[in-house]
Amino acid sequence: MSLWLNAGVPATEVAKRAGHSVDVLLSVYAKCIEGQRSRANRQISDALDD
């Protein structure tokens, strides 16, 4: 799950495949997705530039 989340797979898809709710998934794997703010900001910026 950590690998998928860090690869950018949406939490909703990871949770579905893992058989968890998004809340449970994020509470367990929150540490692995910390520090991804810069990636998220780039994705938002790229989407706005299109």
Q: Could you describe the largest sheet, including whether it forms a barrel?
A: none
The count of helical stretches stands at 4
Q: What structural class is derived from the secondary structure elements?
A: mainly alpha
Average residue-wise pLDDT: 87
Strand content of the residues, in percent? under 5%
- Looking at the structure, what is the overall shape? elongated
Give a verbal description of the structure.
The chain has 50 residues and is an all-alpha fold. The protein is built from 4 helices and no strands. Helix 2 packs across helix 3. The model has no long low-confidence stretch (mean pLDDT 87).
For this entry, give a set of tags.
50 residues
Question: How would you summarize the topology of this molecule?
Answer:
Blueprint lengths: L1 H5 L4 H8 L3 H12 L3 H13 L1
Structure summary:
The protein is mainly α and 50 residues long. Helix content is 76%, strand content 0%. The model has no long low-confidence stretch (mean pLDDT 87).
